[in-house]
Amino acid sequence: MAEALRSADGGCAVYRSRDPVRNLRLRVRIQRLASAGPLLPQAPPPPPGRGLLGLAERAATGARRPEEEEEEAAEVGWQEKLFSQFEVDLYRNESACQTPLDRQYHEEILKLEKAGGRKNHRIFTYTDHDRFTNLEEHCQKVTDSDHEVPSYLAERMANVRRRRQDRRPVEASALKSKIITWEPTEEFIKNNHVINTPVQTMYIMGDLGPYGKLGHREYEHVLCTIKVDGNGVITVKPDFTGTQGAYRIELDGEKREVWKYTVENVSVQVQPEEEEREQSVFRDLYGRHKEYLSGLVGSEFEMTLPGTLRLFVNGEIVSAQGYEYDNIYVHFFLELPNQWSSPAFQQLSGVTQTCATKTVGWENVAYFCYPFTLEMFFTQGDESEDSLPQWPVLYFEVLSLDFWQRYRVEGYGSLVLPASPGLHTLTIPTWRPVELGTVAELRRFFIGGSPELEDITYVRIPSTFKGERLSRFGFRTETTGSVTFRLYCLQQSK
């Protein structure tokens, strides 16, 4: 029964290995099969009377090819150089060697000839340092359409030449390029869209030329491509043969010769004791790394009790804008609803520095940049399982100082702490109570003082209010400026 052969274009396989890639070894075996073309005309029978003599002449003229022309096997290591007949003829002549690599190949070929010549005839390799490019990799299509037009990204990925770069550590003062480009241009984005991962490449080639015509570039075919990157990822195309059968190459031409070849992984297997020793080293390494990370975190990291939410707020009073007078400051305090608590050391109120205003656009703005920290806990009670918890409220008042250090109320406001963690930037409008007539405004301007709230929680619903409806009928107010807060909220629960 005939052996089922596969096409070498069936895709690639990706492996990941922690073992050094220098331990990789492959065995490639190639064999010529019968012609795939039409049957050739048979030779005419010998003339009468010359039966045995004619057969002898035909046997003498049709000498059989040597076995190395029909079948060949070679074992190749990672980046191991096997010269082809074309390279032997080229680098044998010293005048054709232009680069240091060419002269190195010249010396190696002279040593091979002194040692009796190369053992390989059809199987050879191109290493990562050779000037070889597989054009089939640059002409791959994304779709099966005959009229496909490659995109810009496909062209860039096809033309990128990925090679390993031996980078040396440089000091921070020696950096010449920007690590981060904050305002990239469209051309910069277009040129840096392709991820260029350094890769080492090796090609295992086959010289499938006819008998007596080895060394012609048109008969060279890629048998296997191996690519290795710095992360230990090994890409093999086509995959190792295994149990799925050999690969098939059919040549163009009148004879349409067919070759089959296999690719096997013959790397030396790790002994059980060496594997156990390696696993022990890795366990020790991971354990030390875990201890190092634990040392960075420390043992003072606190966990909340089950059913308790810890809310941590790093806040900042950024600015106040739109107020009537200069030299303003903000007084604030936090109100905790039921089932909320705070540590004994936590200060729930504060006051900013007095800040002069500056004109920005059409408004007078005072930049405080005043930081504050709040920490509180919410404990889930039995009576609140079916109801949403109330969230803490930050009350604040904006005041101004005159020349005689007398203060005036510029506005009241309130802020409910965000229920979601993360960064929140909020601008809260404020208002202040006013009296009828001009006498109150004259008093406020000349001698200071203005109507104030006895309970600042009256900005929202006072904490002492127990009724169903809160009436503010007859309470006169005036809209003033606004205050901008920046809050970094963290939540922890178990």
Chain-wise SSE layout:
Elements: E1 6-7, E2 13-16, E3 25-35, H1 51-61, H2 67-70, E4 71-77, H3 85-91, H4 100-114, E5 123-126, H5 135-138, H6 152-159, H7 186-191, E6 199-207, E7 220-229, E8 233-237, E9 247-250, E10 257-265, H8 272-297, E11 308-321, E12 328-335, E13 340-341, E14 349-351, E15 358-360, E16 363-379, E17 393-401, E18 407-416, E19 422-433, H9 439-446, E20 477-493
How would you characterize the overall build of this protein?
The protein is of the alpha+beta class and 494 residues long. 18% of the residues lie in helices and 32% in strands. It has helices at residues 51-61, 67-70, 85-91, 100-114, 135-138, 152-159, 186-191, 272-297, 439-446, and strands at 6-7, 13-16, 25-35, 71-77, 123-126, 199-207, 220-229, 233-237, 247-250, 257-265, 308-321, 328-335, 340-341, 349-351, 358-360, 363-379, 393-401, 407-416, 422-433, 477-493. It is elongated and about 120 Å long. The two termini are 67 Å apart. Residues 37-43, 51-63 and 161-176 have low confidence and may be disordered.
